[in-house]
Design a protein that fits this description.
Keywords: Nucleus, RNA-binding
Main location: nucleus
InterPro entries: La_dom_prot, La_HTH, La_xRRM, Lupus_La, Nucleotide-bd_a/b_plait_sf, WH-like_DNA-bd_sf, WH_DNA-bd_sf
CATH topology of the largest domain: Alpha-Beta Plaits
Subcellular location: Nucleus
Number of helices: 18
CATH architecture of the largest domain: 2-Layer Sandwich
Pfam family, one: La
Strand order of the largest sheet: 5-6-4-7
Largest sheet: 4 strands, antiparallel
Number of strands: 25
Structural class: alpha+beta
Distance between the termini: 26 Å
Strand content: 15-25%
Number of domains: 5
Length: 520
Amino acid sequence: MTSVAPQIKKQVEFYFSDSNFRRDRFLQEETKKHEGGFVPFDVLFTFKKLAALTVDGAVLEAAISDSDVVELNESKNALRRKNPLPDQDDAPKCTVVLAGLGKTLPTVDEIKEGLQPLDVECLYIDRKNFRRTFSGVVHIEFKDEDSMQRVVDSASSLKINGYVPNGISMVDYQKLSDEDKVEFDKATNAMLVAKGVPNKPTTFFLDELLPVWKDDAKLRARVRYFEESGELYLLFTQVSFAETVQKLLSEEKPVVVDEQKLTFELVTDKDAIKARPRSSNKKRKREPVKVIHISNIGPRTRLDDVKKLVATVMDSSTQSPFIEYDGLDTASFKVSIAEASDLFEKFSSLDGPELGGKKVSFHLLEPDEELKVDVQYEEGLIVRFDGIDGEISRDDIKDAINEKLGDKASDGAGVAFIKYQINDKDGYLRVTSAPLTKEVVDMFADGGLEVNGVKIPSAAIIEGEEEKTFWEDARSARYKRFKQTQSNRNQFQRGGRGGRGGRGGRGGRGGRGGRSGRRH
């Protein structure tokens, strides 16, 4: 066998191992789909890590010919597990839970590198998410219980991506109450406590502490203020981070509240940390609110622009409201009923407030009341064409018309948008100015417009309800694209579905490129 053959064998045996196959719905479905449960090589070659080693069937066949985990079919072009899955899943006995690994998703290689001093073999790595953000917790399944126990016993001496984790066996973790599981996952190993702190909203302390960890996000603590006792708690997963922050607060970046410099005591005693006060779990009765909406926001307006406008009216000593901005032409924020009328009057009294070059309007509504958006648009820019009997594309139509417009279609002028799919009988054009719109329609006057041998018989400028509906649909489509872009950006920032360890996060051997959620 070639030098890469052992790696191929190891990779394939991982895919079909008890640990991975039990969790791998895709492979299970492929096994059910094909005769005799044999998964074709072509399917396996879509797995990114295997494809990086080989996409040659003969090489794969030779590599796994003596495997104790998988077997080949008669045609030597597909394989399956040799033995059925055991009825009992012993994975929890070989699994460790590590907590306190920060908010940045560690790679599989970073986790394996942190465990390297213990010389243990990872079978499966599951990086846990909470509200689509890495929670600092990983579940790692090992080859045997002895490896798992060594990791638990040595957790305090390990370092993964700069973090020393807390460790517990999955069996013991599962015995914890829900409250104790949450406490373990938070991995509070140190806290800074300030006493006799003047009463302020928690957001005030967050703002005052921001300079402390602005340049190093790892130092950011969980901040808790208890009004009854006047105590401020900064909670850390890493003792070293707490020590660094304590030094910064005492020297370079002190926090001063009502002319009083806060002094923080470092606490690392586990019993003291466990006995710290907690925020009440009882749901607070929500204060009745109203919603102030901002409409007619112009294009290319950023959320910061909206915030700056709102800040011109809001009292700087109060907490800034959370602003929801749809990325198009409306934004909103909630205010208490007590201050709603006064604030709305102040916003309405602003002298010609603009966002994106357009004068905005303000509306005071109930939380469940929908803002009726009156879509703003320039009339006479939309052309409907119909009667197409042939195959042409949007670009064909756009290029043909803009070519006829000549220099008038330069610098972004001319046909800017086409709503049309190949084989549709009709569609819409959006032109950049009313005079050009008339010229475009005139192109169809003498028997229609020919595009790549296909005749478009007629076209007309739309108006009235049809025109209004077009612009409303266009706004709705832009809003959906905006929300999808936001969702995609959030997905990218949290590392895809890395909380599952990815198909490449499982011991660093999985991974199927080209499938959603299967990374590496």
